[in-house]
Amino acid sequence: MLSRVAERLYWMARYIERAENTARMTKAFHLLALDMPKTVTLSWKGLVAVSGLEALFEEHYQREDERNCVKFVLADASNPSSVLSSLRAARENVRTTRDLIPIEAWEIVNELYLFARDNIDGGIGKRGRFEFLSEIVQRCQMLTGMLAGGMSHDAAYDFIRLGRNLERADMATRQIDVGAIRLLSRKDDPEPYEGLLWTSVLRSQSGFQMYRQHVRRRITGPDVVRFLLQDVTFPRSVAHALSHAQLAVESFPHNEIPLRLAMQARRHAQDADVEKLIGNEQLHDFMDRLQLEVAQLHEAIADCWFPQAFES
């Protein structure tokens, strides 16, 4: 397989996963805003904080209100991680690799982008936001299922699997990190709506029902962090995503450096002492290091198999 083709498949998967994760996160935040009492002011800047693009947001917007924050993460062309930007990039990558993936996959991605482009105003506004975001998530999942069930699990599919899981791990670390900063630093003044806020973090990863099924305890910060970081049976946990990224890397030749980095990141996520990290107020630093390890793994993948890789 040509390196440029492998690169496009990898980035197609990352962009689709990024769009789905951003839509799911925005949907969870929207539901949180409906659940919170009207007397409580909810900072929508948290949506921007997860992406790490606060500086870019401040360049283009003077007010940190709901509409501006939602517009930035869903539709802003200057934001390379917005849902619309991600779907546009994914569509272009699929368009140039149509001979390697099922034709139905191209149709799903093309229709997904056109739907998002034509209905984006409904997502920005409150009235149609839930339906718009739900449709984005469902169509992204349709593509994932179509590729898993209708594409040969060869090298091309392994690059798709690698991109999807690396993006999934990166987003999960960011959401855990932002949640921890906002919620675990109030030891002396517990947040009265902490349960709702941690529920929103779980919903951002579609993990609420699985958490209740497998953890079977009331929702607490340490338990949520441990579940989203280390539960290897939950497909959106960091440990699970990095394990599957490692499996994909193992199938490629000349994989020594990426494989070592994948194993290292997975081991660090899986073996972390969450209680100790929270008790010593080191969770934020740990998540920063884990995000750096994921970024280093991406760089190693690009150096090894995409000699002229472009940036996300």
UniProtKB/TrEMBL annotation:
<dbReference type="InterPro" id="IPR051680">
    <property type="entry name" value="ATP-dep_Glu-Cys_Ligase-2"/>
</dbReference>
<dbReference type="Pfam" id="PF04168">
    <property type="entry name" value="Alpha-E"/>
</dbReference>
<protein>
    <submittedName>
        <fullName>Alpha-E domain-containing protein</fullName>
    </submittedName>
</protein>
<dbReference type="InterPro" id="IPR007296">
    <property type="entry name" value="DUF403"/>
</dbReference>
<feature type="domain" description="DUF403">
    <location>
        <begin position="1"/>
        <end position="306"/>
    </location>
</feature>
